[in-house]
Amino acid sequence: MVEIKDVSFSYFGGKEDLGLQSVNLTIRDGETVLLCGKSGCGKTTLTRLVNGLIPHYYDGTLKGNVIVEGKSVPDTELYDIAQMVGSVFQNPRSQFFNVDTTSELAFGCENLGMPENEVRERIRRTVNALSLEHLLDRSIFELSGGEKQKIACGSVSALEPKIIVLDEPTSNLDFDGIRELRGIIRRLKAAGKTILIAEHRLHFLKGIADRVVFMEDGKIREEYSGREFFSKEAAFYEDRGLRIPSIRQLPYREKQQAAEDEPLRLKNFCFGYPGKKQILHIPECEIPKGIVAVIGHNGAGKTTFAKSVCGLLKRDKGELFCQGRRLNARKRLSACCMVMQDTNHQLFTESVIDEVLLSMKKENREKAEKILDSLDLLSLKDEHPMSLSGGQKQRVAVAAALGSDRRILVFDEPTSGLDLTHMRETAGKILELGENGAVVLVVTHAPEFISCCCTHVLHMEQGRIVENYPLDREGQERMAAFFEGTGGKWEHADTAYEKRNGGQCPAGL
Amino acid sequence: MAKEFLKSGADSRKSLLDPRTKILLVITIAAIVLGGGSGRRMNVIRPALTAIPFVLFLLEKKWRLAAAYAFSYGLAYWGGIFLIPVTAGFCNSLLVAFCGIFAKFMPGIAMGAYLMNTTTVSEFMAAMERIHLPQKLSIPLSVVFRFFPTVREEYGAIGDAMRMRGIRFGGGKPFRMLEYRLIPLMVSCVKIGDELSAAALTRGLGAPVKRTNICRIGFGVCDAIAMIICIISIFLFLADKFAG
Q1: How far is A217 from chain B (nearest CA, A)?
Q2: pLDDT digits over A413-453, tens only?
Q3: Which of A16, A347, B36, B116 is deepest in the core (most CB within 10 A)?
Q4: Distance in angstroms (rounded) separating the CA atoms of residues A439 and A266
Q5: Which residue of B has its CA nearest to A339?
Q6: What's the pLDDT at B37?
Q7: End-to-end Cα distance, chain B
């Protein structure tokens, strides 16, 4: 049981809007509660109250009381809370302490000094309950995002806490990863755990969440039962700035197809590491100008393809023909520009305006300011890029790409971890780029995003392009069918999952 | 290469040597090869120690690392012998400095790479506990140990971004290369470090109990041989320095 009683919190030195204001919430044993709301609405802060990171790790002013399993969180040490509350975070890269999976599963138990036999027994039980056998004794660097989150859940459940808190666990996952995570959450729920999830992506929790809490500006605004929440109309979610949970409800938008323009031609885009299977095999392909979504399952070679288009791969023999110019990998490096998933990696300078100037061939302050203005960044032009929020950083990266005057822009997962409003904003910017004549490739897992702004779909599997179609009304159907097939229809996915794993109720958790 | 470096943790679960032996080897090799001494005995011991990382790389089937080490050390050594006598002036002093430093540092660095490459974080922590290092020291040390692969991964990603934006030597601002490379690296390392600590704390790291460890480390025949080599080398090194 979790009781949050009239809690207000504000971070030290932080911005006002990230705190909480007189929040009351009671979570009963065995209940699964979904927290949703726009970025900065306080849902992450609320999870931190429950796992004790507030007030033990993040400083701030806390009023009110949080009681977990009868103990007051502020007065209980973190290592004691660890046995009652397990936490899974959004970034799989930074929540693993070990580099191999078995040690990671043992980590929590080892920290609490359990005897070796018991640690092994608990690992065995967890592995059975969550079917993680095939993931034992692997290096975490070779796991997919979904597998990493499974191990993270496993590591947490080995401590056998009653409550499990997940803070945006799908931010870095694709559809397959989300499906795997859903399977794990179902098993945890079936084992009677109390589960609290803060999320932007809602669709995968249909049929799992017992209660949905909608937050805004650090307050709890509305509460619904899971059934009630997931049966609302599309407008209900849009009004609240939430992502739409059902793919079929996505609005179809008429988009102009730039048909008269000559398409891009790709030739010999093949790539593989020596002695291993080819990851990319595209002997020839035509991509129409416009905004092209690159979709496909995990490991389909989407990111490799994106890197290849940008000329970032070594020993790349691919050639791209654009407006009669033949571009080899070296030339593509200066003709294309990629906005990476983690924008922290690609911002280098001390101020936003410098960032744009840096990528210009000839520095032109006036033009740079114009670009910033068009992206609502002018007021931030003297700020340090690293002090900005995630969405703002991404816009700075886009501004830099625009400044470089490159014709081909590639976005790798531009929407991961964005709420509806910010996703729409990004989509709007990308639409503008397309209207200004740039060719845009977007690697994405978000059907909402595709239906917002893309004009064409490139579907890849196993390094090959298997489908290549314009996103007209028929294309929209095909795209929706793809996403439903990989995970949109959870009920089917669940039955298949249970058939594979034999029965749904895990023993011994 | 980066991939191999990262993978190694799980592939070689039972590595040849105990982490403690590896640490001793790193210290011995670094100290003696760097520390010099040029007696007759030292002229045998230093090449022997220099060869150890190479042999270990081969035994662990790290062909690329072995080749890279042999090649770069060979080059520096060859340069020292053949190029220095035939050059003069500025070029000569540059070569002397370069080859000298390279040849002296390389074995220690290679041994360190071997340690990082073949030891998992968990083994490292177990070793720290066995030598009774207090938790106040062993936890930060293992965090640092955990961090190397991450830094390397981040470094690669930033390198990609720089190439794509055309920031390279020969571009407009060569002197700011370092800044452009390091600032994003520092920012993302701080962020990852922060998240890593939070995640570890919620799983009870730092609890005031004796930490257990399920990974089994222990000394074997190889360790004994390596230890003997280390002890003899250190003994002769000290004898050479202080007695002779």
Answers
A1: 24
A2: 887 767 788 788 788 888 888 887 788 999 988 888 888 88
A3: A347
A4: 13
A5: B161
A6: 65
A7: 44
B202 contacts A82? CB cut-off 8 A: yes
CA A361 to the chain's CA centroid: 34
**Residue B65: burial class (beta carbons within 10 Å; 0-12, 13-18, 19+):** buried
Instruction: Kindly state the tokens that stand for A299.
Output: 């490991």
Q: A264-490 belongs to which CATH class? A: alpha beta
- Where are the domain boundaries for CATH 3.40.50.300 in chain A? 2-246, 264-490
- Going from N- to C-terminal start, the domains of chain B cover 1-120+216-244, 132-214
Which ipTM was obtained for this model? 0.80
**Considering the entire predicted model, what is its pTM?**
0.80
User: Which of A9-23, A68-82, A326-340, B197-211 has the least mean pLDDT?
Assistant: A9-23
> Chain A residues with CB inside 8 Å of B212's CB?
109-110, 113-116, 119
B135 touches A: beta carbon within 8 Å: no
Q: How many CB atoms lie within 10 A of CB A263?
A: 17
How far away is chain B from the Cα of A141, in angstroms, using its nearest Cα?
Answer: 6
B165, A358 Cβ separation under 8 angstroms: yes
Contact A338, A306 (CB under 8 A): yes
- The model's confidence at residue A115, banded by pLDDT at 50, 70 and 90, is very high
Whole-number Å distance between alpha carbons of A418 and A414 = 9
